[in-house]
Amino acid sequence: MRNIEIKRPRYFINSLAKGLSVLQAFSKVDHSLTLSEIADSLEANKTTATRLCYTLTELGFIQKDGQRRYRLTPRVLTLGHSCISGLPWQEVVQFYLESLFKEVQETVNLSILEDSEIIYLLRIRKRKYLPFDIRIGTKLPVYCTAMGKVLMAMGAPEKIKPIFKTLEFKPLTPRTIKSLDKFMDELEKVLKKGYAIN
Fold first, then answer.
1. CA 182, CA 188: separation in Å to the nearest integer?
2. For residue 115, how many other CB atoms are within 10 A of its CB?
3. Which of 53, 80, 107 is the last residue of a domain?
4. Domain region containing 39
5. Do 124 and 96 reside in the same domain of the chain?
6. Does 24 fall in a domain?
7. How would you classify residue 14: left for phi > 0, otherwise alpha for psi between -120 and 50, otherwise beta?
8. Directed axis angle between helix 46-58 and helix 35-42, to 10°?
9. pLDDT for 124-175, tens place per residue?
10. Angstrom distance (rounded) from CA 8 to CA 124
11. Residue 70 buriedness (CB in 10 A; 0-12 / 13-18 / 19+)
12. Torsion over CA of 24, 30, 31 and 33, rounded to 10 degrees?
């Protein structure tokens, strides 16, 4: 079999391995699969593939559409959710941060909002010269960081609105926003663009 390497120890169940291989076949494509495609991925005959697909359909993990093609059902997501929810949140977040870093090749951060500041919890830094670096646990005002602008622009209104009343605009750099009006204008731009820039 191609998807799962079978060493055939005493308690190994071939039929279960083949059934899981059907599910794994969908992880390699972003579309539905025909019975022939599933059989090919298993290196099995159509009779075996038919029985496996029938069983998985009865269990609710796959379904067949009007064109006789198979696709995964949302029930499969419950397995992934159980896996993720059982992990410490740091492991889950670290995985996504590393994936994002590989994609954009820029420094990525995880921050939370606390009153009128953001706190940096996790950080993957691009290895290049920076005039300054941000340590884990650093607190910065929401109005002078891209992360703060995003959290303020896209956060839950009931949590965000009270923060505006507490803001004291103290310039940290020559380009720091110095008034509530300018900050609100900046947040409108963030909402339109979907991202923020320092």
1. 10
2. 12
3. 80
4. 14-80
5. yes
6. yes
7. alpha
8. 110
9. 887 765 555 677 777 888 888 888 999 889 888 888 889 888 888 888 888 8
10. 41
11. buried
12. -20
